[in-house]
Amino acid sequence: MPADEEKMGLTKREMIMVAETHRGNYTVWIKATENGFWKVEIHLDGQGRVYDIETTRRVTKGWRNLSDAILFAQENCKYFKSIFIEIGEWVLTTRE
User: Fold this and answer.
1) Using alpha carbons only, what angle is made at residue 52 by residues 95 and 2, rounded to the nearest 5 degrees?
2) What is the mean predicted confidence (pLDDT) over 54-83?
3) The pLDDT of residue 3
4) CA distance 78 to 96
5) Rounded distance, CA 40 to CA 85, Å?
6) C-alpha distances in Å from residue 12, one per residue of 1, 44, 68, 74, 76
7) For residue 51, what is the enclosing H or E element?
8) What CATH number did the domain enclosing 66 receive?
9) What InterPro entries does the database record attribute to this sequence (predicted)?
10) Partners of 63 in beta bridges
11) Residue 92: is its pLDDT beyond 60?
12) Mean per-residue pLDDT for 22-40?
């Protein structure tokens, strides 16, 4: 993570509010974690902030299956600028 990015977390409810207030100005990343789970990150454009999606207990939310993380993003991350899935050295994105 670049030094200018500040890592924070959002619950699902907070993430939905951020998506509404930053329409078209945020990017979604779905990334593999070291323990074999998948996590969703929200990157706010121009602010240098990266938010992990967290549970209500403020622990990073993890999905065992990539398809579940993608479904979560499809259902809850409305109005994003772009979305990426990082798998090792590969980065996949949506069609334009």
Assistant:
1) 80
2) 94
3) 46
4) 16
5) 9
6) 23, 16, 15, 13, 8
7) strand 49-53
8) 3.30.720
9) MotA_Tscrpt_reg_C_sf
10) 38
11) yes
12) 95
Non-local (6+) Cβ contacts of 77 within 8 A are 15, 19, 28, 40, 42, 83
Structural domain count of the chain: 1
Query: 73's torsion region: left (phi>0), alpha (psi -120 to 50) or beta?
Result: alpha
Share of the chain above pLDDT 90, in %: 74
Contact 36, 63 (CB under 8 A): no
CB 7 within 8 A of CB 50: yes
Within a domain: residue 39?
yes
How far apart are alpha carbons 33 and 50 in whole angstroms? 15
Instruction: Report the share of the chain in percent with pLDDT over 70.
Output: 92
Q: What is the pLDDT of residue 78?
A: 86
Asked if residue 83 belongs to a domain, the reply is yes
> Residue 35 is part of which domain span?
6-93
* pLDDT at residue 95, rounded to an integer: 80
Tens digits of residue pLDDT in 39-52 = 999 999 888 889 99
